[in-house]
Design brief:
alpha+beta; six-stranded mixed sheet; four-stranded antiparallel sheet; globular; 13 strands
Length: about 220
Amino acid sequence: MLIAVLILPVSGAETTGDASGNEAPVSAVPYISATATPAKATIGEPVTISGVATGGNLTSGVQIWVFAGNYVNVSTVPVTSDGTYSAVYQTTGLPAALYYVIVQSPGKDGSLNILMETTGQFSGQVMNTMTGKPVFTFTGTGSVQDSAAAQALSDAFNQSGVDDIYSKCTFQLVAAGTAAPASTPALPAPVTTTKKSPVTLVTVIAAISLLGIAVVQRSRK
């Protein structure tokens, strides 16, 4: 199975740190949040992934994973001095799907412990840089996708020795809708009618008999 590993245009502010280029101070309690805006977008409409990342060593920024089906995008985005980050993703040409987003913060050591190979024979394979061993793959034999991939990636961050933290969200990408049909005049409400019961043959015969009796009686007078 082929996988599209693309680097989409993203925008973000400058990395955390002071004017002299010194590393940002390391906080004791790392924290990260993630939001996709809009949560439902039409193909061609930009989607912004943003949130707050504080604590730990954020000099290298945060890593954003966006994936759906065979599509995977992994980008590194800087964190501003006020602890926020933002990345704008262009969606033109992407398939309609539910997209899973995981934003990864490097934790106290300032290094991302979970990375994905983006080139070569092992492209699409997620690696644990602490052990040098593969965790799972987005493509090929034994690959996982969508919600299964989101769970596998979450499990990777929870492996022993990994101090990366993460936050998850999703967004829905849909095809542009067609124009609404032209309005048509409302049809008049149907008139409800009650069908009359048909006159039976017995009723006809009885009526003729009565008429004959009446004629005979009148002739006798």
